[in-house]
Here is the input.
Amino acid sequence: MTRFDVGDRVRVKAAFPPGHRRTPHYIRGKRGVVERVCGAFPNPEELAYSFSGEPKRILYRVRFKQQEIWPDYGGPEKDLLELELYEHWLEAA
Amino acid sequence: MSEKRPHDMGGEPGGPIDTVDHGMKFWEKQANALRNTLTSRKLVRLDELRRAAEDLGARYYELEYFERTTHALRQVLLEHGLISEAELTAKMAEVRKRYD
Here is the structure.
């Protein structure tokens, strides 16, 4: 059961919890589009502290426009960045 | 808001890039072999090792790659009780004697 489908617009949570996190700071709060659903994996943010990582979390590949990520980006509008992000870091946009 | 952890460097100026292949020292190969054995047997997880390396904070960049990963391995083995501080200290003293 996945919360998002390919083509859905999502926003990365602008959250800053302490500890081992798999979402880089520079992408937090940014908007993108789901490019694919990668599958379900044990949650690495729990595995990092020796817990089981269950329940598994859905991992998505999300596509972002470079121009929307970097304020001083000098490249063309078509330049993209794809990141793999877990469902609990995403909200509907 | 928590501070960025040391591995989270995306978007920061990269500085000069060292493209020289420095090879691996003997101890680095041993450290790598030990880490691969322990992770493939699931005695420790890469996620735990990454977390323990990030926990180094500012020291993360003072250490070289294999120093950092070996520190992490030490930390996680201690956490799991697979080795004790006393055993490690005794073993290190024993090994050091071979070179004195």
Q: What stands out?
A: The CA atoms of residues 3 and 28 of chain A lie 19 Å apart.
